[in-house]
């Protein structure tokens, strides 16, 4: 066994890492090109890696998530009614959020967000890789159709299993001391929010906005297809340049994750707004203004135009790109670490 496996592990690699091979003599070196050894497809490992990646991204970008959600709300105009024209909406809203609710306001809903994002990302990555493995066994080769099918499967699993947590997260983030912004019950805690929803709206209240969440699968699917496609293009370009076992650099991973998320987020953003509106509380006894995804989008477009459909887009873009980069880099880091650790133990 070559001693190269004992060298410090590379932090970021492609989905396939090289395994050193030995030859009996130097004349056969050209016929013994290092064989690529796939990283583990163990669902539990991908579950853990995805969960850690998602949690890390949430903690770092939480303030932007909070203000994005509030700017998507139906009373979001109250947040910027005295804003100077030259002042960016995102920074103005963040400043006044701290003024109203203190620095703790920047992390509203962090508890349910962390509670949800770790299993959500974990379910997403593990289901994605499990679906890919199953399709590979049935003879489907890696490519856009396989990536898309896997991403849709993963996104749907996440939307159905974690929907109630996201509704609670949204409700908690919309709680603010700004007069007339909130309607309905003021939640004191995560548990009070749960009990209030059960008491006032019944168990089905936890699944408000599920239709929009299922539509959001298109964003995740689009993102994963782009991400896999960018990685594939980079590795192909490196192979053409003569590299034997090409690996993606940290910068290339960042660019692949960031650009794929940016394109997907912008192209599918209106579903984010209507999902928040559907999850919002209504005043006691009031008939909900938004009753479905299509009806809600039409109402927003008619009453508020494009500005309404893209409310909170600024903080969303500022958040999702670094969040996606942090998530994917942590995910790849954990998989890479596990891969090299397993090689060391095998040796």
Automatic annotation (TrEMBL):
Residues 17-36 are annotated as: Disordered. It comes from the Eukaryota. Belongs to the mitochondrial carrier (TC 2.A.29) family. The keyword Chloroplast does not apply. Pfam families: Mito_carr (PF00153). Keywords: Membrane, Mitochondrion, Mitochondrion inner membrane, Repeat, Transmembrane, Transmembrane helix, Transport. The chain crosses the membrane at residues 43-64, 145-168. InterPro entries: MCP (IPR002067), MCP_dom_sf (IPR023395), MCP_transmembrane (IPR018108), SLC25A33/36-like (IPR049562). GO terms for cellular component: mitochondrial inner membrane. The keyword Transport applies. Solcar repeats lie at residues 41-134, 142-233, 248-337. One of its GO terms (biological process) is pyrimidine nucleotide import into mitochondrion. Residues 17-33 have a biased composition (Low complexity). It is found in: Mitochondrion inner membrane. GO terms for molecular function: pyrimidine nucleotide transmembrane transporter activity. It is a multi-pass membrane protein. This is Mitochondrial substrate carrier family protein.
């Amino acid at each position: 066994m070559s001693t190269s496996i004992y060298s410090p592990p590379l932090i970021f690699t492609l989905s396939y890492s090289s395994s050193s091979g030995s030859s009996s003599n130097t004349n056969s070196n050209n016929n013994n090109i290092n064989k690529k050894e796939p990283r583990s497809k163990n669902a539990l490992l991908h579950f853990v890696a995805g969960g850690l990646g998602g949690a890390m991204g949430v903690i770092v970008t939480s303030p932007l998530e909070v203000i994005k959600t509030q700017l998507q709300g139906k009373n979001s105009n109250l947040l910027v009614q005295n804003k100077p024209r030259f002042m960016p909406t995102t920074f103005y809203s963040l400043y006044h959020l701290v003024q109203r609710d203190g620095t703790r306001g920047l992390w509203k809903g962090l508890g349910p967000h962390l509670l949800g994002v770790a299993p959500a990302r974990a379910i997403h990555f593990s289901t994605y890789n499990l679906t890919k493995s199953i399709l590979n066994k049935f003879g489907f080769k890696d490519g856009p159709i396989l990536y898309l099918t896997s991403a849709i499967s993963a996104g749907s699993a996440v939307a159905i299993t974690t929907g109630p947590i996201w509704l609670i997260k949204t409700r908690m983030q919309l709680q603010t001391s700004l007069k007339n912004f909130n309607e309905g019950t003021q939640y004191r805690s995560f548990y009070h929010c749960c009990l209030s929803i059960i008491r006032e709206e019944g168990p089905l209240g936890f699944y408000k906005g599920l239709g929009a969440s299922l539509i959001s699968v298109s964003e995740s699917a689009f993102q994963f297809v782009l991400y896999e496609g960018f990685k594939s293009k980079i590795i192909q370009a490196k192979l053409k340049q003569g590299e034997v076992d090409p690996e993606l650099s940290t910068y290339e991973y960042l660019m692949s994750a960031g650009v794929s998320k940016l394109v997907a987020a912008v192209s599918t953003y209106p579903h984010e707004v209507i999902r928040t509106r559907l999850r919002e509380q209504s005043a006691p006894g009031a008939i909900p203004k938004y009753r479905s995804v299509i009806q809600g989008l039409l109402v927003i477009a008619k009453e508020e135009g494009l500005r309404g459909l893209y409310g909170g887009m600024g903080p969303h873009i500022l958040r999702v790109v670094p969040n996606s980069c942090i998530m994917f880099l942590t995910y790849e880091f954990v998989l890479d670490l596990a891969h090299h650790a397993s090689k060391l133990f095998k040796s």
